[in-house]
């Protein structure tokens, strides 16, 4: 069972999310939080597999709450919001969120995203991925705190995998692109995250975009 903590300040929306998640036979709603502070506290107490985190919440916003949950390695975080591209997206991804989903997502896609994140794969809504890439492509001079030197520790193959992550590709997609086994892709992803000091493949995707790493 995939144990999920739902963090959403609007009671009606939260109830709807819980209803959707409970319709999946392999998902258990471990708890509900009405604000960011409660989300962090319950994540510490319940240790869910995934926290479904709203961005805009009282007391502690979703980005700050995500940062705490990820830093303490309490769970993977799937961020949920009505905004498809603004500071919340970049803030959430840099905070270590494993996925980013829009609130108007269909129920089946929400469940699929939770399953994907629970498997250890990042998930960003396709529309958001396209706009993220377009944003970086349109602003090549975008200020970045990333140092290209961090890539020196990567092997050629790991750089190729990182470039694919920058396109928002899944493990299966990377495996097909680079003609390797999916299990091998997972190994490369794990190693490059360790070398780069990153907590999620989505952070790796953002880094790849910031540094302009080209696909193989």
Automatic annotation (TrEMBL):
Domain Response regulatory per the UniProt entry, residue ranges: 3-118
Entry-linked InterPro entries: CheY-like_superfamily, NreC/VraR/RcsB-like_REC, Sig_transdc_resp-reg_C-effctor, Sig_transdc_resp-reg_receiver, Tscrpt_reg_LuxR_C, WalR-like
SUPFAM superfamilies on file: C-terminal effector domain of the bipartite response regulators, CheY-like
4-aspartylphosphate: residues carrying this PTM: 54
Keyword set includes Transcription: yes
Domain HTH luxR-type: 147-212
Keywords, in A-Z order: DNA-binding, Phosphoprotein, Transcription, Transcription regulation
Pfam families the record matches: GerE (PF00196), Response_reg (PF00072)
Presence of the UniProt keyword Membrane in the record: no
Name this polypeptide is given: Response regulator
Organism, as annotated: Streptomyces chlorus
């Amino acid at each position: 069972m995939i144990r999920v903590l739902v963090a959403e300040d609007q009671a009606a929306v939260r109830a709807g999310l819980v209803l959707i998640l409970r319709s999946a036979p392999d998902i258990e709603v471990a708890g509900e939080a009405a604000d960011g502070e409660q989300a962090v506290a319950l994540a510490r107490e319940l240790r869910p597999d995934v926290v479904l985190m709203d961005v805009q919440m009282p007391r502690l916003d979703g980005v700050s709450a995500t940062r705490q949950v990820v830093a303490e390695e309490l769970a993977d975080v799937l961020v949920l919001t009505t905004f498809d591209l603004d500071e919340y997206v970049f803030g959430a991804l840099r905070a270590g969120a494993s996925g980013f989903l829009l609130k108007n997502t269909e129920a089946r896609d929400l469940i699929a995203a939770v399953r994907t994140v629970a498997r250890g794969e990042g998930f960003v809504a396709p529309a958001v991925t396209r706009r993220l890439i377009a944003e970086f492509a349109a602003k090549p001079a975008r200020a970045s705190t990333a140092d290209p030197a961090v890539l020196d520790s990567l092997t050629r193959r790991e750089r190729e995998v990182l470039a694919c992550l920058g396109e928002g590709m899944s493990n299966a997609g990377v495996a097909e692109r680079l003609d390797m086994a999916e299990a091998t892709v997972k190994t490369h992803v794990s190693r490059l995250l360790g070398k780069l000091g990153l907590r999620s493949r989505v952070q790796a995707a953002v880094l790849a975009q910031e540094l302009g790493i080209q696909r193989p």
